Amino acid sequence: MKRLNAPKHWMLDKLLGSYAPKPSSGPHKTRECLPLVIFLRNRLKYALNGREVQAILMQRLVKVDNKVRTDSTFPAGFMDVISIEKTGENFRLVYDVKGRFAIHRITDEEAKYKLCRVKKVLVGKKGIPYITTHDGRTIRYPDPAIKANDSVRFDLENNKITDFVKFDIGNVCMVTGGRNIGRVGVIVHRERHIGGFDIVHVKDSLDRVFATRISNVFVIGSGNKPWISLPRGKGVKLTIAEERDRRRAAAAAAAN
To answer: Which residues fall within 8 angstroms of residue 233, CB to CB, at 6 or more apart?
Structure first.
């Protein structure tokens, strides 16, 4: 892939090379994923170049969703848990309010599960019901109450659904696409448009209301209590002036 065509949220500088790693085909889309090579080299700075990343992966040190991955261009995506046992670190890929994947460290306890958004509920051969999720999983015999757009809590050790949360007004969600990507808030209203896109209105903790398509809304908890820890900023988008004031206050505090 040419460097200039790489997704902006990978934050690759355009002068250091003509090419960017092309993600392998996998559970997440090319434009919505972060290849392991970029995570280890550009984000964590554990390697200086692609060859060193390959050396780390070939020692089977890196797990994605509790599975060892040795492909340096493996597409890790939203909600994936990346574990490096040698350093005792666990990361969950979640968006910050600028639409980039934050380096979000999590505890060993939280690394045992992930949330998956249900895309479809179907019936397969011999009448076996199953659901498909946002990260390419097919899970058979789900709870009959689980419907499309709900989120399930998926245990990565036993590969089982342990809990689920409905797509309902009053539940906390994160936006995973569009202009409001990375924002966290409570669902306040759902507009149904027959033959078009349903629009969901979300209110964040500063009582600012914004709207987005239903396909961009990922429920992350029941009520206003999220089931996962959130990155710095807690998914609250500030205006440029508010960001500036916070930076100045922090600088003044550091100077004193």
So the answer is: 96, 97
pLDDT at position 224 is 86
Q: What angle do CA 197, 199, 201 make, to 5 degrees?
A: 170
Q: Is it the case that residue 64 has pLDDT exceeding 90?
A: yes
Please state, in angstroms and as integers, the Cα–Cα distance from residue 115 to each residue in 18, 79, 86, 205, 214, following that order: 36, 7, 25, 22, 17
Angle at 27 between CA 10 and CA 194, to 5 degrees: 95
Contact assessment for residue 143 and residue 164, using Cβ atoms and an 8 Å cutoff: yes
Query: Is residue 37 packed enough to be buried (19+ CB in 10 Å), middle (13-18) or exposed (0-12)?
Result: buried
Q: Is the pTM above the cut of 0.85?
A: yes
The greatest distance separating any two alpha carbons of the chain, rounded to the nearest whole angstrom, comes to 71
Phi, psi of 62 (to 5 degrees): -110, 130
Handedness of CA 40, 43, 45, 51 (dihedral sign): positive
Say whether 91 sits in a helix, a strand or coil: strand
> Residue 83: beta bridge partners?
63, 90
Residue identified by tokens 């820890």 is 229
For residue range 162-199, list pLDDT tens digits in order: 999 999 999 999 999 999 999 999 999 999 999 999 99
On whether the CB atoms of residues 80 and 64 are closer than 8 A, the answer is: yes
Beta bridge partners of 157: none
Backbone angles phi, psi at 32, to 5 degrees: -120, 20
Q: How many helices (H) and strands (E) does the chain have?
A: 3, 18
CA neighbor of 90 nearest in space, from 26, 42, 39:
39
Question: Smallest Cα–Cα separation from 39: which of 89, 82, 85, 78?
Answer: 82
